[in-house]
Design brief:
Elements lengths: L17 E2 L3 H12 L1 H4 L15 H6 L3 E7 L1 H10 L10 E7 L11 H26 L6 H6 L17 E2 L2 H26 L23 H6 L3
Length: about 230
Amino acid sequence: MGPFQRDQVWSKRYKSIVVSPEPRVQLERLRYIVAQGCDNNLVSSPLEWPGACSHQALVDGEQTVEGAWIDRTELYERRRSGEPELENADVTTSNTVHLAKLPAFDHLSDAEYQDLMQRLVDGVEKHTRERLEAERKRPLGVQGVLRVHPHQRPKKTKRSPPPWFHATRESFKLLKRAYKAFLDAYLRAAALLRQGHRDVRFPEGCFPSRLPVTLPPPSARARAPG
């Protein structure tokens, strides 16, 4: 985390959002990730993005991505304590990320999945090219991206409200009803627990709320050792 960042590892706006098992929805989510650099007019192709990503590995059919993690915290502590500063190589760890197919497309062969990923990237490139021509704009480009300081903040950011789920309209309605039923059951169980009931059944898959704190009577507290 840089010195000018206000958030922690995850932004305050971050939240986990359910993605439905529908193939179209899962592919749309992946396209959203792959197209970020293009949609923000930074590069003209996802494969040009100079930062950490798996786009090239997806179209090449590779199942692993190699990367390096630099312990910036250790470097910062060295500078702050006045100790001799370490070289990046001294605090760099090699990491391997194993890629998996989208669950909805796990039935595809490796060659079929690679073709799907290539078509996804081709579609992003085509859409980006047509949009830039219509808007008469040019992307910042790889060298321009690399020149931007990592602590630089955009003048304006998008703050659209996150959805409850990523799903088709029909599935969204079903998920919303199921979520409401789950929440109602949880709140009823939590209320009973607060009333002193101990045989309460919470909905499957949730974290039950804590038991209410019950202090011993004052006379017992007075006799307690220490």
